[in-house]
Task: inverse folding
């Protein structure tokens, strides 16, 4: 089954708008995706017909709200191949999911001298929590280096794994699109008695995900990059690990009992969901994964690989050496992310000109400064593709890049 | 709708292509501060040489976009040879021009340009269009804020007494 992109595009109301008098060309889904009608309707439906707090009221609409939000948990679990829906913890975003692991599992299990092994592809969200633990606990943060084409250099992996308690890696680089061999890293981690956390923020929205196939122990991702709303993320963890972890935030919902002298935490996953949860957003992410499943994630991936191939070849033909696109050239090991430098034009200036042509791209360091330093750049302009993009979007990007080159007199 | 020509005036592009006072000064005696724009990763170093309260030299290092680089370049020509108080006055005028308080964030409700030089900013007036692009204001002010920080380092009690 292949993707009918015109029909998909029509499902996203925002993609029908214009900016600066020209149809929008949205190429920033790596930052946040647009939302299909099905997600917007599901959230409206909640507020308009069943808005009530969950796990509290015994009245009809409270039961409907509770059922709808827990159905969403089941949908998300199915979407990532988790057999136990109670392994799905809802968080604010992927950043909070990783912080949850660092604070709860990390503080319980890591001591001075223990090593957390990261890759140089990581987003700040999977760096700073470990730096914080290093400052607090004296753990060591160690880095897997890169090869020349921006993939992980695993030549020295055995030595890098000495003393490691956790391998925490991204499954798709948000800067270069590189897809590291997560399964291999998870196996290597387990072989030395370490755990493996995967940042799936750029992976789960784009590739069929099965936590058993990934082989990891924790998986963090966020709703708003996968057609869902902002304010909702997911931490998936193996049940026995979550069950042994203390709560992260304290308050309502996360307790079984509270006394004058203490409290008894709730079961997982609610133990980690203190306070009233983002109910509409849970329903929204549930609708998003149902929508993606309806299209088929294999079809989504095939479409993105073919569009990335089209982009690399047509932009390469048009601009030659003037346009540097970072990352691996083999699109079977690459997501639909194109970090570009057009000659000497600064990313901010380039994106400004692209915006005048309705083309939305991200300019900057993409919250991955250690990687940017490795690449030897302070900023790039990043186009990131999704299921609703087509070849006309790539052609529009090329035309806008052409206009930028002319504007800055190259 | 603001167009590119509102942002990229010829004088801005000229300062970008031919930046004035690029380089470093020996520290000490020169003061130095480093500024970052966390949004885009731009980094700027501003070196200031003082004789008494007069700014005898200013140099700019680091890298950035056309707006941050040209604004820093224009700043060096505006403050070199001035007293610290005069330079701080120009800094205040410039930051006032970069203030978006009265300007519509959609960029549709922006007052017409002042006649050149009415604020005493000279060439720097060319940067007025930046307020129509609020994301870029931090680019334009990066060098100035860093210059301000460099001046603040001249708080050594011995120097203050002399």
Result:
């Amino acid at each position: 089954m292949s993707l009918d992109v015109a029909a998909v595009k029509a499902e996203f109301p925002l993609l029908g708008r214009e900016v600066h008098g020209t149809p929008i060309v949205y190429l920033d889904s790596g930052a946040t995706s647009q939302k299909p009608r099905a997600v917007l309707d599901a959230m409206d439906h909640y507020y308009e017909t069943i808005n009530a707090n969950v796990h509290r009221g015994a009245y009809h609409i409270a039961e409907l709200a509770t059922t709808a939000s827990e159905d969403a948990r089941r949908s998300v679990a199915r979407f990532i191949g988790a057999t136990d829906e109670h392994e799905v913890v809802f968080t604010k975003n992927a950043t909070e999911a990783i912080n949850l692991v660092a604070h709860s599992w990390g503080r319980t299990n890591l001591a001075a001298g223990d090593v957390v092994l990261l890759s140089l592809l990581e987003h700040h969200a999977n760096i700073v929590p470990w730096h914080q633990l290093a400052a607090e606990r004296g753990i060591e943060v160690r880095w897997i280096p890169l090869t020349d084409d921006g993939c992980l250099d695993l030549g020295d992996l055995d030595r890098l794994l000495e003393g490691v308690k956790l391998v925490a890696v991204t499954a798709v680089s948000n800067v270069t699109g590189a897809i590291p061999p997560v399964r291999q890293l998870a196996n290597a981690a387990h072989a030395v008695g370490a755990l493996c956390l995967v940042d799936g923020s750029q992976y789960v929205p784009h590739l069929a995900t099965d936590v058993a196939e990934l082989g990891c122990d924790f998986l963090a991702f966020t709703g708003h990059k996968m057609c869902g709303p902002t304010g909702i993320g997911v931490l998936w963890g193996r049940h026995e690990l979550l069950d042994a972890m203390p709560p992260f935030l304290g308050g309502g919902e996360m307790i079984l009992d509270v006394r004058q002298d203490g409290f008894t935490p709730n079961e997982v996953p609610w133990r980690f969901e203190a306070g009233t949860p983002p109910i509409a957003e849970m329903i929204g992410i549930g609708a998003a994964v149902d929508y993606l499943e309806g299209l088929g994630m294999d079809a989504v991936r095939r479409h993105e690989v073919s569009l990335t191939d089209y982009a690399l070849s047509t932009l390469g033909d048009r601009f030659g050496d003037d346009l540097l696109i970072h990352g691996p050239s083999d699109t079977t090991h690459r997501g639909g992310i194109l970090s570009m430098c057009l000659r000497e034009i600064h990313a901010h200036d380039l994106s400004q000109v692209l915006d005048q042509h309705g083309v939305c791209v991200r300019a900057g360091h993409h919250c991955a400064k250690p990687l940017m330093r490795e690449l030897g750049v302070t900023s790039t302009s990043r186009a990131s593709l999704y299921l609703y993009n087509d070849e006309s979007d790539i052609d529009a990007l090329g035309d806008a890049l052409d206009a930028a080159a002319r504007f800055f007199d190259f | 709708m603001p167009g590119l020509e509102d942002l990229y005036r010829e004088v801005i592009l000229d300062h970008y292509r031919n930046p004035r006072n690029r380089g470093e000064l020996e520290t000490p005696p020169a003061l130095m501060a480093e500024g970052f724009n966390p949004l885009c990763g731009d980094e700027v170093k501003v070196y200031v040489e003082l004789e008494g309260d007069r700014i005898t030299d200013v140099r700019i290092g680091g890298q950035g976009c056309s707006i941050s680089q040209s604004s820093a370049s224009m700043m060096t020509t505006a403050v070199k040879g001035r007293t610290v108080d005069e330079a701080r006055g120009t800094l205040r005028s410039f930051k006032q021009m970069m203030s978006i308080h009265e300007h519509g964030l959609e960029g549709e409700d922006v007052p017409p340009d002042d006649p050149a030089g009415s604020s005493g900013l000279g060439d720097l007036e060319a940067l007025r269009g930046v307020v129509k692009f609020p994301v870029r204001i931090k680019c334009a002010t990066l060098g100035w804020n860093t210059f301000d920080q460099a001046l603040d380092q001249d708080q050594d009690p011995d120097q203050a007494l002399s």
Observations:
- Chain B touches chain A at residues 1, 3-4, 7-8, 13, 39-43, 63-67, 133, 136, 139 (CB under 8 Å).
- Residues 54 and 92 of chain B are 18 Å apart (CA to CA).
